[in-house]
Amino acid sequence: MSETARLDAEEHKIMKKLGFVLTAAVMLSACSPDSSLSETKIRLADANLKITALEKELAEAKATTKSTRSAGTPSVKGESAPTTPVKPSAESIGQQWQYDISEDAMSGKKRYTATVRSSNTASFGFPYSGAQHGTLTLRAQGKGKDVLFYIERGQILCPSYQGCRALVRFDDEKPIRFAANGPADHSSETIFLSDESSFLNKLKKAKRIRLAVDIYQNGAPAFEFDVSGFDQDKFQPKL
After folding, report:
1. Cβ-contact 232, 204 below 8 angstroms
2. Is there a contact between 135 and 227 (Cβ–Cβ < 8 Å)?
3. Which long-range contacts (CB under 8 A, 24 or more apart) does 161-166 make?
4. Residue-level pLDDT at 72
5. Does the pLDDT of residue 87 top 70, yes or no?
6. Strand, coil or helix: what is 43?
7. Mean per-residue pLDDT, 177-194
8. Torsion angles phi and psi, residue 84, rounded to 5
9. Are the beta carbons of 65 and 7 closer than 8 angstroms?
């Protein structure tokens, strides 16, 4: 829990206590005539003392919270307080990649894949509404290599018989247009990028990739991928 969140919780706790004591004081003030007058006065005086102490504590808590927020501590309530970027640890770099090895049922050859999901999402119109990620997959089998991009739902405008172009930007370099083709089964969620060797060589040196391709009735949203820490040996281990 952040320091600001802890202070907010403490402030809320004090306010809750104050509410209980105020309620008790009101009840004591409206006590029945049968109650002992002296006992009621003592309890009411004690309640007033508690109220004064809690009001002071609440004022101090609010002042501390305000000071902490002004100093730039991030708040869990969505406030845009300035923060200092946190440098990822060496252990966390590359953890976003998923590597897998499978065997082709017909050829018996090993198939290697490395997959990373976009760090941002895009929302398309009906009937494909709802936030969704893009996915980038590298695939190798024998001497062949493929670079696939696919979305969860929607229609990428890239028919297998005609092809298309995807705009790819590596880090802060100028965007490059890669030729692409749809899959043989004519599904609309996947494309294969051409010039795989050039793409892979640039990916190995990059930390971020942005890829945009035309989506039916949804423009060409840019999906962003954190490709830092890509491990060639995990992608194609030397067995």
Report:
1. yes
2. no
3. 164/191, 164/213, 164/214, 165/213, 166/191, 166/193, 166/211, 166/212, 166/213
4. 45
5. no
6. helix
7. 94
8. -95, 125
9. yes
